[in-house]
Design goal:
globular, Thiol Ester Dehydrase, Chain A, alpha+beta, homotetramer, two-stranded antiparallel sheet, about 140 residues
């Protein structure tokens, strides 16, 4: 599997696609079948109990899957999540969210990916584990 | 199943728990086994293609499940999502997100819930369908 | 949505496809967007505790989804499950398994379905709730 | 994490629990946080197209999760699956099914596990990937 985009290209592609003024996340590593992204901590990511919220973890997992798909199929912004499952395992300490996505399958129509989620504040603790599919546009 | 809280009580409980200045969502309906909430539209809910984003839909589903749990077990803010699965079905037009949560099981340790998600801009179209479990604190 | 096959046609299609000597299941109801099938009780469906096993419930859900897909897209035996999620809710008493499948989306490439599972021995108790996607062959 | 049972003890515990006359599966490897089991090929595991069926793969994943739980918490036959999600990735060639289960979390109430599924006939191809939770009896 040859990569079609660099991490920096993915970052700016998404930033422009979302009309964002600043970098939304960092692609820390991108290689065949794997991507690791980092989502910077924001106070609004916390929920009562001072732990990372479900929506914040979902967002990080979604970005990691999207970055992995873009890296492998090129700039197809219209790829969309088809299904997504997450198990929440341990409290996520306040900190950047690190998401490691692993490509399980890249078919013509679907990419299937799993994602391990960590807080940068406690990198040895798996906070959540997710899996999901991306529907790829025809002719991608 | 007797309800332990009203919709208005749930709204203010969550608002205070999150330290929010304004109402984050509305509980439109709450009865035994069912809750419907509405999450007001914000431009940041959109992703390229002008459709409701996955994280915005996840957030609405999570709130609906949480409201349903609080309504049935009382003010246990520490109830946490254990697992969550979502299928994205149709594009969500820009609008408030309406989430209808249905209680499938209320056990001592887990509540299992499914959620149907709609955009108020196109209420006849099912945008996504989710299911998940909430882990209940012991002695709840 | 017009139906392409009757319940009896689906039963015999699957029986022949599997090289089975006898009817494997009954399609009790089939209409636009809905199918209910019944899987006859076999002692090997039980696990310790005398309750319906996970694999038996999975099998019934899978058949209901498959019957619903065949009914709506015609005799495409090669349609395959892409993903499947199930929550086990209550003990399933020994009895026929009844599975009610509801079509959430019928796209060109994917059908998304949810399934409610019951034991005929205690028809008021929801035993499990499932959801999943079927990948449809191109040109189906 | 100390193991409470050996693979051979798990095999005979399950065989007796199910009243089976012969060994149903083999625990090929069991260590802290990991179990690999093998389910012997039976012709009834195939579906049209001569590939391993969904129910056969589900069965193997369920056994691997169960063996992993028993190995870590001891002979609690009443541990039950709470939720289960599977993505089917590639056709499973006819052969023994090998399931590798990895413990993501062992809490007091839930064990969360993911499972990779292979056919022994094509061991380099990931056939399916699953994740799920086991509800542990109180006081286990």
């Amino acid at each position: 599997m040859e990569l079609k985009l660099t991490g920096a290209e993915i970052e700016s592609l998404v930033q422009r696609g979302f009309g964002a003024d600043e970098k939304m996340f960092t692609v820390e590593e991108l290689r065949a079948g794997f991507a690791r992204i980092r989502l910077p901590f924001r106070p609004r990511m916390l929920r009562p109990g001072n732990v990372l919220s479900g929506p914040a973890l979902f967002t990080a997992a979604d970005i990691a899957m999207y970055a992995l798909v873009l890296g492998h199929v090129g700039p197809v912004l219209m790829a969309v999540t088809a299904d997504f499952t997450i198990h929440f395992l341990n409290k996520g300490m306040p900190g950047d969210i690190v998401a490691e996505a692993r490509l399980l399958k890249l078919g013509r129509r679907l990419a299937v990916i799993d994602v391990a989620l960590y807080s940068a504040a406690a990198p040895a603790t798996l906070v959540a584990q997710a899996s999901g599919s991306y529907a790829l546009p025809q002719g991608a």
